[in-house]
Write a structure and sequence with these properties.
Largest interface: A-B, 27 and 24 residues
Number of strands of chain A: 0
Helix content of chain B: 25-40%
Oligomer: heterodimer
CATH topology of the largest domain in chain B: Rieske Iron-sulfur Protein
Largest sheet of chain B: 4 strands, antiparallel
Radius of gyration of chain A: 39 Å
Largest sheet of chain A: none
Strand order of the largest sheet of chain B: 2-3-4-9
Number of helices of chain B: 2
Shape of chain B: elongated
Distance between the termini of chain A: 131 Å
Order of helices and strands of chain B: HHEEEEEEEEEEE
CATH class of the largest domain in chain B: Mainly Beta
Strand content of chain A: under 5%
Helix content of chain A: 55-70%
Distance between the termini of chain B: 77 Å
Strand content of chain B: 25-35%
Structural class of chain A: mainly alpha
Number of helices of chain A: 27
Structural class of chain B: alpha+beta
């Protein structure tokens, strides 16, 4: 080996040591230092079953990441020896920080595409605030995600999968004894189950329906304040929110006197939006005889009339179709009417009879056009049926003429004779 | 000569002769058969005509002329009981169901934003029909389109 080769080798060794030093200081080193042997399961074989399907186990993350110790050692004493960082079962505060060691580390989470602000969010939540104030009753990562058997959020078996999440929250929030310490109700889940959101999620399995986290947030879970409710609901109900901002209630809402959506629809018990609300909720703040109630009555009347017109015209078009009338143009117009009727629902949040009447007029006008068109087509069909009379008359004349001709031909003496001759 | 004479003699006699019952019956039958054949001819031609003037495939329907839709523009059509939205991009014509997959409102094309929007609950779809935002649970169904000789054909 000449001097040049030795120089290259020395350079490579220095370079490699440099890389190693950098890796040791980074999160990348943590993932590359994962031991290949997990001796913990020799004694804790029951945990091994739990861990088998967990996302962490599949990624080669062993017990020492959360519990400390050295799983590469062959004996219990050596695995838990001082200097191995063994802590046993971590406290709730340790859990939050331990999970954050990886989940708040951009270098580690980057390749999994997982957000790294979860710990920061948690610290802003009611759970996180109370935990770091010393309250160990509150939920920490493992209370929602599980411990050894953590599954990906998108796995239907995960405790935080959309269909399971509200039940997971209810494990604590349905505990009357625990909730009484915080002066919180413990029947939220029962109420939620009967709501339009709860039924959509739990009965229809619509994972897009709102659950606890949709309104309260997940890692940063807090109750939305009176002024934030509209923003929260508006994440899904965008047009309702947009039109509400045009309504006279905005000022009251900004002053904190009116809790936007909740004042009329409720929160956990929110029922399918119904026109009954006009009769039930307006009078909570307004006189039943006052001008506000009158405006509400006007809107209600327009909504009812529009729905009724859509229903009756749809039935008319359907009946005409059954009668064999070509109704495709009317069906096209009906789609437009249906759109306007549906659009009236968000628009009513302006609480402006003038705005609602714009769509109402279109509905009335379009349905009248459809009705007229169907009646004209029915009349046309009747006329065409009448036109069948001369055709039937022609057919009858033709049959009569052919019959007469047949009789004439049959009555010719020669024909009979010829026939007999031919037969003989 | 005899024939000519016969004609001269019999001609006026034939003209004067009233139509017999037999002749009347013959004319009625001939007229009826002619009317029936004429009635059969029209539907036969009507059946053949659309085949000759049809599009690239018999199951494709002509829905618009290309000139009707400017680049970046759209047209709504109703075909076979379905409302359709045709959008013309710089490269092609795209056809979507115009019925929002949320509650069934008729969607619109927002040209400046290059998005398909539902006016009822602010559902937004992209130019592939995929849900961008809002409550629609599914993408908009799309349909194959062909443009031939300046005419737009769709297969439902």
């Amino acid at each position: 080996m000449n001097h040049h080769d030795r120089s290259i080798n020395a350079g490579l060794i220095v370079f490699s040591l440099g890389i190693l030093a950098v890796c040791q200081g980074s999160g990348l080193a943590q993932t590359t230092q994962t031991p290949q042997v997990n001796s913990c399961v020799v004694c804790h074989s029951d945990m091994q079953e739990d861990m088998k399907g967990s996302i962490h186990s599949q990624q080669g993350i062993f017990c020492d990441r959360c519990h400390g110790g050295d799983p590469a050692q062959s004996t219990k004493e050596l695995a838990k020896a001082p200097g191995t960082g063994y802590i046993g079962a971590p406290s709730k505060k340790q859990i939050a920080e331990m999970c954050g060691n990886c989940h708040a580390n951009v270098e580690i989470m980057n390749f999994y595409g997982i957000r790294t602000d979860q710990l920061a969010q948690y610290k802003t939540s009611m759970h996180g605030k109370k935990l770091f104030q010393g309250d160990t009753n509150v939920a920490v990562c493992s209370d929602c995600h599980g411990e050894h058997d953590i599954l990906p959020v998108g796995d239907p078996g995960s405790s935080v999968y959309p269909l399971n999440l509200s039940k997971t929250c209810n494990r604590c929030h349905g505990n009357e004894k625990l909730m009484s310490q915080y002066k919180l109700p413990s029947d939220i889940f029962k109420i939620y189950q009967t709501s339009v959101h709860g039924k959509a999620l739990l009965e229809k399995k619509d994972t897009g329906a709102a659950s606890c986290i949709s309104c309260h947030g997940y890692h940063g879970a807090v109750p939305p304040g009176a002024r934030d409710v509209g923003t929260t609901c508006g994440k899904c109900h965008m047009n309702e929110k947009k039109h509400f901002l045009e309504s006279v209630h905005v000022t009251a809402s900004e002053q904190g006197k009116f809790s936007e959506c909740i004042s009329c629809h409720g929160n956990h018990e929110v029922k399918p939006a119904s026109k009954v609300l006009y009769d039930q909720t307006c009078i909570r703040c307004h006189s039943a005889e006052g001008p506000e109630a009158k405006r509400g009555g006007e809107i209600l009347k327009m909504l009812t009339e529009a729905e009724e017109k859509l229903r009756s015209t749809t039935a008319l078009v359907k009946q005409a179709s059954i009668e064999g009338i070509f109704v495709e143009p009317e069906m096209a117009s009906l789609e437009s009417v249906k759109t306007n009727v549906i659009a009236m629902a968000p628009l009513q949040h302006t609480l402006s009879p003038e705005r609602v009447s714009e769509l109402h007029k279109k509905v009335i006008s379009n349905t009248a056009d459809i009705d007229r068109s169907i009646h004209q087509k029915r009349q046309s069909l009747w006329l065409r049926k009448l036109a069948l009379i001369p055709m039937w008359a022609l057919i009858i004349v033709m049959i009569s003429a052919l019959w007469a001709k047949y009789r004439q031909l049959h009555a010719r003496p020669g024909n009979k004779k010829d026939g007999k001759e031919k037969r003989s | 000569m005899k024939n000519t004479e016969d004609q001269n003699l019999e001609g006026p006699a034939v003209l004067k002769k009233e139509m017999s019952r037999r002749d009347f019956l013959d004319w009625v039958i001939k007229g009826g058969i002619l009317a029936t054949l004429s009635g059969m001819l029209f539907p036969a031609l009507a059946y053949l005509w659309p085949v000759m003037g049809h599009g690239p495939k018999v199951d494709m329907e002509e829905v618009a002329a290309l000139d009707e839709i400017p680049v970046g523009g759209f047209k709504k059509v109703f075909l076979g009981g379905s409302a359709l939205l045709l959008i013309r991009t710089a490269q092609e014509i795209k056809a979507f169901s115009a019925i929002c997959t949320h509650l069934g409102c008729v969607v619109d094309w927002d040209g400046p934003k290059r998005e398909i929007v539902c006016p009822c609950h602010a559902g937004v779809f992209d130019l592939e029909g995929r849900v961008v935002s809002g409550p629609p649970p599914r993408p908009l169904p799309t349909y194959p389109v062909k443009v031939i000789n300046g005419k737009v054909f769709i297969k439902l």
